[in-house]
From TrEMBL:
One of its GO terms (molecular function) is methyltransferase activity. InterPro entries: PCMT, SAM-dependent_MTases_sf. The keyword Cytoplasm applies. Pfam families: PCMT (PF01135). GO terms for biological process: methylation. Its EC number is 2.1.1.77. It is found in: Cytoplasm. SUPFAM superfamilies: S-adenosyl-L-methionine-dependent methyltransferases. This is Protein-L-isoaspartate O-methyltransferase. Keywords: Cytoplasm, Methyltransferase, S-adenosyl-L-methionine, Transferase. It comes from the Bacteria.
Length: 351
């Protein structure tokens, strides 16, 4: 049977209700063809096609990092369950034309083509474009065109029915026609938004993506995540609020609300915690307040008292509102970023 046999079920276990058409696309498109040069494992080593566990990892529900710049990942094949959720949200029908911003390995475009879409994928990295083209050709995928172009400008001459963005952006380009599915920066992460023609949006899922270049990240409304090792020496400001701690998705709900109410929200590595935690990062980027999954607040730095008070205000407000999940927010977009190349950014939130 091999590792490919259970791939669709592993994607479903990631929480996605796959349509029969998309399940068939995942079953038919060979993911290994799109990573011919291998990928970076989570432990930092490089997996190669000859390795005994290569296909096991390829057909896991995990991201495959295919290009790094120093230690920074710059291109990948996204986690399949996340890809599936974004594609299902896009609601693609046969014969429609989809503009994909960020070619990656070409695998996502191949899945879209498997749904009967005509796909034009653009990427600013020329080597990424060349590799995606070669992989699509090896896989025998028709109906996909990959272009070396600026994602912000899009392809003005192209009549597009849908846009999907596979890199993290601070806002969407006014050159893209809606509907759009895109990971848009919020509190140091990139939750995926479904953006309608009236420029209102809703959150589809929490996520983290590699960051785009150029005007699409011209404005960072939140501080970049705290560098590893900077959050240390923080002390408790109050007791835990939940036992057991919030489940990961509920913690992300709190995190999203924190980003709505406080522009210093981002994430940081905290000693004793495997996953990054929500932090209100001070201007020096060495202090502020951390909100842990159990609701305890830690704080440090010259303005620790103020940041701890802000963190408790966020917790109280979230609880008073009934712990709203991120999916209830309705988001309005407005122009921001570089005035010479504006982007449409989240501007208002209500539910």
């Amino acid at each position: 049977m091999g590792p490919r046999a259970g791939f669709v079920e592993r994607i479903r276990q990631g929480g996605v209700a796959l349509s029969p058409r998309l399940a068939a696309a995942f079953a038919e498109v060979p993911r290994e063809v799109f990573v011919p040069d291998g990928f970076q494992r989570r432990d930092g080593t490089w997996a190669k096609p000859a390795d005994p566990d290569f296909l096991d990892v390829v057909y896991s529900d995990d991201v495959l990092i295919t290009k790094v710049d120093g230690r920074t990942p710059v291109s990948s094949s996204s986690q399949p369950s996340l890809m599936a959720l974004m594609i299902e949200t896009l609601d693609v029908h046969p014969g429609q034309t989809v503009l994909e911003i960020g070619a990656g390995t070409g695998y996502n475009a191949a899945l879209l083509a498997g749904l009967g879409a005509r796909v034009v994928s653009i990427d600013v990295q020329e080597d990424v474009v060349e590799r995606a083209r070669a992989s699509l050709a090896r896989a025998g995928v028709a109906g996909v065109r990959v272009e070396h172009a600026d994602g912000y400008a899009g392809l003005p001459e192209l009549a597009v029915d849908r846009v999907i963005v596979t890199v993290g952006v601070a806002g969407i380009s006014p050159h893209w026609p809606a509907p759009i599915v895109a990971p848009v920066e919020h509190a140091g992460t990139h939750p995926v938004l479904a953006i309608a023609e009236d420029l209102t949006a809703r959150v589809v899922t929490p996520a983290g993506f590699m960051t785009a270049a150029g005007p699409l990240t011209a404005a960072h409304p939140f501080p970049t995540p705290a560098p590893p090792g900077t959050i240390k020496g923080f002390i408790p400001y109050g007791e835990s609020r939940w036992n057991p701690p919030l489940e990961p998705l509920a913690y992300r709900d709190l995190w999203y609300a924190a980003g709505v109410w406080n522009r210093r929200a981002t994430h940081a590595a905290v000693p004793g915690h495997e996953q990054s935690c929500l932090v209100l990062l001070d201007e020096d980027r060495t202090g502020g307040a951390v909100i842990l999954p159990d609701g305890q607040v830690l704080a440090g730095g010259g303005a620790a008292d103020r940041y701890a008070a802000d963190a408790h205000t966020i917790l109280d407000r979230w609880l008073d509102l009934g712990r709203p999940p991120m999916g209830v927010w309705r988001i309005g977009l407005a122009a921001g970023g570089d005035p010479d190349a504006p982007i449409l950014m989240p501007h208002t939130w209500e539910f």
